[in-house]
């Protein structure tokens, strides 16, 4: 029995080797996660045109230029199609960061930016005259370190463009991971690329009001082009094969689309 116990107990060299391997694997995992881009989606909820104009002015003249000075490029600013007649008007701002560290650093420096105080209609607005009804923030991480934000290759007039923001909620975290796996390893993202969907980002939501969830943004020249692309997608043999696989069934409990257009001062 003593001989058997001695045989089962790892020696000191073997134990050190196992610990070293575990640390290397952990570091590799952290490095992979650190290499993934972070997208911050800020959604301004507005009650009327006056609030919309105040937020527009702040974003255009102060916020977006400040981000540019801090090294954050390609900031997208969008409004929902039909925003002028909506009860809940919105302005969406998509800010890409190379890492969590950059997000934290930029956020801290923005909090200390005194130049914002000159924008009295927004930054120093009175408590009973706010520039918006509520500000919602969603933190998103790229689905893979190999998938980064891409500026859409569109040439048509901005007011005619259709940017489609999709949100896929899942019943629980495990099933959500399955849908992400379908996008990355399963080849759903590759299918979007092959069919020319002009995807801006593909990410999983890390923090937001609807979770577990993944979000992505595709772009089209106009509504007709958008409809034609999705018609082609639905009929594609590769999609029919992928969507029929048993392991990918029932992994989305809610699919929500928001149709947007880029404002004049948006970077794309």
Describe this structure in words.
The chain has 268 residues and is of the alpha+beta class. The protein has one domain (36-262): Alpha-Beta Plaits. The protein has helices at 2-8, 12-35, 49-69, 100-111, 173-184, 188-194, 223-235, 237-244; strands at 38-46, 76-80, 89-97, 134-142, 162-169, 201-207, 213-220, 254-262. The protein has an 8-stranded antiparallel beta barrel with strand order 1-3-2-8-5-7-6-4, surrounded by 4 helices. Strand 6 and strand 7 (213-220) form a beta hairpin. The longest helix is centred in the first third of the chain and has 24 residues, at 12-35. The chain is globular and about 55 Å long. The model is unreliable at 1-10 and 12-32 (pLDDT under 50).
Brief overview:
This protein has 268 residues and is α+β, with helices and mostly antiparallel strands. The chain is built from 8 helices and 8 strands. It is globular, with a radius of gyration of 23 Å.
